[in-house]
Batch of 4 targets.
Target 1
Amino acid sequence: MNAASNNGPPEGEPVSLWVATAGTTDYPVLRGDLEVDVAVIGAGVAGLTAALALKRTGQTVAVIDTARVGTGVTGHTTGKVTSLHRLAYSELARKHGDEAARTYGQANQSAVEHISQLVAEEAIDCDFRRVANYTYAETDDALDLVRVEANLAAGLGLPAAFTTEVPLPFPVKGAVRFDGQAQIHAVKYLQGLARAVGGGGSFVFEQTRAQRIHDGSPAVVDTEHGTVRARDIIVATNVPFGGQGLFYLRCHPHRSYLVAGRVDTPPLDATFISVDEPMRSILTAGVNGTSYVLTGGEGHRVSESGDTAARYRRLAAFAHDRLGVDKIAYRWSTQDGIPLDGLPYAGLMSPTAKHVYVITGLRKWGLSNGTAAALILTDTLSGRENPWASVFNSNRITPAASAGRFMKENVKTAAAILAGKLSGRPSQTDLSPGEGTVIKVNGENTAVYKDADGQVHAVSATCTHMGCTVGFNAADATWDCPCHGSRFTTDGTVIQGPAAKNLPPAPVP
Ligand SMILES: Cc1cc2nc3c(=O)[nH]c(=O)nc-3n(C[C@H](O)[C@H](O)[C@H](O)COP(=O)(O)OP(=O)(O)OC[C@H]3O[C@@H](n4cnc5c(N)ncnc54)[C@H](O)[C@@H]3O)c2cc1C
Ligand code: FES
């Protein structure tokens, strides 16, 4: 069936393959007061990697997560563990010079090896597989770009080569190939890291949201039912909650979509991403005895969602037409921070911070970038030099590499703020089950959703970060903020920041 040909709901269960197939964790809620060396907020790849690395240096850690281990962005990833990030080296060398590009490559290649080592040492059953990773070209223009990327990356000491032999089931002109890369089941991997973190004076807590942090000696994390006192705090919540460090101005959230279909063929020893637009990312995986083909793409800045169902349908059409997928089993979307100057952030939260550190801006390659960032902070908090720290420095000033993009992104955000202020409809429209809309109730923009049973739910439509008006994402059934990317469930619970507070309930119209 070719799903692109109809306008109905997209194919597939609306849940990530990785979340659906990993089982769940059951760590306790933090209740009472606790003292450790380092408090880590966020049980994604960045937070858990940092926590385990710190524990291995002999420090005690407490990881707290508002949800369950691995169910954030990392649970919605594609699963490539690689230092080949499409055409990143050409971009970084142009913006920051060859040395910074080399350091970025070394950090990410070391991260690939660190993950491989942890999987072996901690016996983590997470379908880790070595694969070659390809950035492929279908047009002559793209071919020129991959040739340049391959030469540059090889010159930087990375395992890169240009090739015309690309093991895809459709013809392409050539590719950059990185050998010795990998893929993982990201949720199983994080569950394995969490297992290794707990014990010996270190802890993992779930369903525990950090509400406030205080920088001082000790540094303190306040949660609803308890407090963690620590020498240092790492905020690894993907986007720092509550606007700390003003990273929402230095990073813009970018959303992408994935579909996974079952196939009869075994997984390939290769993963792929296209240079040509529309960009497509491809990975094959064997999960619990079943083979899947994942197709990703349709990326956009959060203010430009458009018809999200159509985005899933276009990905499904590609999987059907070009990858031989018969039926889509799962579909999901998530977003990650793209730093204005192209480099991730790992370091102090702000120039004046003393004991509060941050990892963010992982540019949609956080399995490796987040791992590298975690290793940088581990060294910093252990009093050791780290050779990648200056390139990832969270307080760097790079006006030449960021100014143009800063203007472009923040003008778009301002337009989204204005559009949101004008968006509320004057009265309720008839909603079908599964639909949501923003209407005016007593003069207030109100986000109204009708669930599958016909019950109407209403919450404030005013984003708790900085007051933009949220919009309904029909394919994922979420309220999404177009300004800095906060996402909320239909009952108003924060899924992703920078918002730190839920959308409050509103009168049902
Ligand atoms: C569609 C898509 C595909 C991708 N594919 C790849 C890929 O193939 N390879 C790759 O390397 N990268 C990929 N990435 C990027 C990568 O998945 C991310 O960079 C990475 O997973 C981010 O990890 P994280 O630890 O920063 O965030 P998360 O995994 O989101 O972890 C942050 C955690 O913090 C918790 N949290 C948030 N606020 C609070 C709070 N106030 N208190 C307590 N806890 C809180 C959340 O619940 C969450 O669990 C992809 C990104 C996208 C968008
Ligand atoms: S995310 Fe900033 S206003 Fe909503």
Target 2
Amino acid sequence: MDFEFRDTPKLAKFRKEVRAWLDLHIPMDFEIPDNPHDILPGSTKYEFIRTARHKLGAKGWLAPTWPKKYGGGGLSVEEAYVIESEVAQRPWSHFGIGDYYTGFFDIFGPMLYALGTEEQKKRFLPPFLRGEVIGWTGESEPDCGSDLAAVKTTAIRDGDDYVVNGSKIWLGSQYDNADYIFLVAVTDPKAPRHRNIGLFLVPIGLPGISKVHVPWMRSMHTGAWQVFFENVRMPVEYLIGGHENAANGWRVVSSATRLPQIRFGFLIRDRNQEFVLAYCQETKRDGLPLSQDSDVREALAEVEIQLEIRRLFAIRQNWQAMTGSRLAGYEAAQSGVHGKVTAIKQAEAYSDILGPAALIKEPEWALFEGNLEYQHFAPVAHASAGTTQEISKMLMSRWVCRAGD
Ligand SMILES: Cc1cc2nc3c(=O)[nH]c(=O)nc-3n(C[C@H](O)[C@H](O)[C@H](O)COP(=O)(O)OP(=O)(O)OC[C@H]3O[C@@H](n4cnc5c(N)ncnc54)[C@H](O)[C@@H]3O)c2cc1C
């Protein structure tokens, strides 16, 4: 069976249409003057990306496979792939023009879709799917990460409100602000573990919410926040799924729900690898192109092999999602661990090949506008994002040993 995405004549026509639209709205030659890795509100980069997201969202191309009635594009998976692969060619696309790491499309959007009442879906999904608002995922706490069922933040019903107390950490995206926090909180402290958790969409401006910046390796200025909730009164309408689901959140948090979102990220050629390959072909050392050096060739080939494995894992996952099949259950964890390890090894290979120029972002010395420096430290931060490698490996082991979840 051939799992590759290939353009049919109809898709090739659609690709032309997408390319023409993007040329008009997100031109190839748009240069962003400020640091590529810090997306601070008010900066040229921030405004460019948010505007691009609005435009894509209004067209239904930010969430192509989501239903039209909720603000998505109502398009096929193949059409979504065409859009994503074209957007990926645009400058800076890998820093957020698409749905890169806003937390919504991967995590809370699907939860809202699965558990939300029809009224909530009609009210809350469109602004997210059209790129008008951004949300941060509020799951982890200072004393709770892998074991999410151990959250201590509480949201206790009081009349027509829930009153929230506690703290969430590592919230953020490459955008330095958000409109909502997707909150996982204990709604009934006396109920047993796993049957005491509710999901909420919390408007970030409610009185009693404050935040402090937590510096991390991914970027120097933007990054993570710790958010504090102090007697925050939140109307019941923000409890996802209505009152009968007040303690039912764990079912959704932990389940592999059938969702309208398909991810293509790893199917698309890695931009840093493209750059380094071209650079090594064009740049001479001791009279010979770098690409003729046997050590360089070996390092580049090893990266290329791992990126191809990563792509094949992604094809398998998309095929599983598209056909609704579950081959075994360990595949997502396997793909996640492999992707994280590959990104770290890729950075090591680039610094071996290119030396200090791969480790800095100052424009006068850096290569590829500092993207290689970012490649060097971001994968270290990302190594435990979502879940740690130990936990992923444990999940795989359980599946392999047929011990269930
Ligand atoms: C870049 C980045 C972005 C993030 N973004 C968000 C976000 O937007 N929202 C959010 O809520 N959270 C976010 N997180 C937090 C992330 O979800 C947690 O870091 C992750 O779940 C791990 O939790 P922890 O850091 O508390 O580590 P812990 O769970 O405390 O784990 C510490 C160590 O113990 C190991 N360990 C834990 N339990 C077991 C076990 N049962 N068996 C074997 N080993 C175990 C782990 O593998 C790890 O090595 C982000 C993290 C990163 C790095």
Target 3
Amino acid sequence: MAQFFAVKSIYKNFGKLAALSDISFSVNQGELVGLIGPNGAGKTTLFNVITGFYRATSGQVLFKDKDVSQARPNELAEMGMVRTFQIPRPFKELTVQDNVAVGTLFNPERMHKTHLSPEEFVGKILEGVKLSPYKDQLAGNLGYGNLKLLEVGRAQGPLPELLLLDEPFAGLSLNEIESISEILRGLTAKGLTLVIVEHKLRELMKLVKRVIVLHYGKKIADGNPEEISRDEQVLKAYLGRRWSKPNA
Ligand SMILES: Nc1ncnc2c1ncn2[C@@H]1O[C@H](COP(=O)(O)OP(=O)(O)O)[C@@H](O)[C@H]1O
Ligand SMILES: [Mg+2]
């Protein structure tokens, strides 16, 4: 595969507002990438464009050598690109295991190739996100921390190759962040590619190997956490905002 995932010169305008201007980068299979930037920088808009919730004003999204700029979210999920939402969106009236099972419907062939029964497949995912004890509970009865874990579990139902996570740490305690980071590390160890939008920079920097920085809709930096934490433009963009250095 020549090109696993790339965005090429993405523009997104909302009326006169240029929410994204000329955003380009590529991600190799197996990478663990952070996407950061002050509020309003365009992170969520970029996720929405990549995952087919918005159409770009211009530019391309490439996934596994295909131009998927016009693809819908469900088509992308079938191809192996899945996102999570900052605010968990479970089916509250379904059990925890059925929430994960719903995702498998997007990709029956790929699940079939795992040689696991649907129950075994879902069971493994629940084990991975530490929700096995809650499998028969209604998602609506889960506490917030477990809902964030379920969001990661649900995203694995379609057996994605590229997973885009919108603020997986939001609202979690440091212990919970450590635990979810460990789960995400485990996923990349199995070959999954992760792009993570996150405001908790210190915790994010401990997890990712590469960070892309947006500011006012433009890409201002792309490098490893060490480089990013010293980058003049990045520091300026965050001036007056809370910035925590990695390993500080
Ligand atoms: N649906 C929309 N309609 C109009 N403006 C929007 C819409 N979504 C986002 N914006 C604007 O685009 C800019 C980027 O927003 P967003 O992508 O949510 O930033 P971030 O996620 O980095 O905080 C902001 O100025 C925001 O107000
Ligand atoms: Mg956002």
Target 4
Amino acid sequence: MQTQSKQKLLHAALTIAAMLATATVQAAEITVDQHNKAFVVEGNKVEAITINAGDTLRFRNDDPFFHNIFSLSDLKTFDLGSFPKGQSKTVTFDKAGMAEVECAIHPEMYIEVTVK
Ligand SMILES: [Cu+2]
């Protein structure tokens, strides 16, 4: 094979490799704190969050009392049970859609999770 053809082939292979690397997005883990009876992400109180399918939310209790995070949504039904300050529990969202997440102890707590 001529050198020029080899270079073209190498370039094509590298291009495909780069495309594959872009397509394979690493699943992220996002921490959602429970603070002052609200959901907090990176220091900001939020009532909605958008993540990618495959991502994990880590619910971390930062209040000096128990929380019990749960969802009854079809997308992802879960109940993390009561857990105290300093503890965290994770939920992985596999499919696209929307889930409403609440606290069984504090009805005012709410976050809408949109999974792309
Ligand atoms: Cu709570």
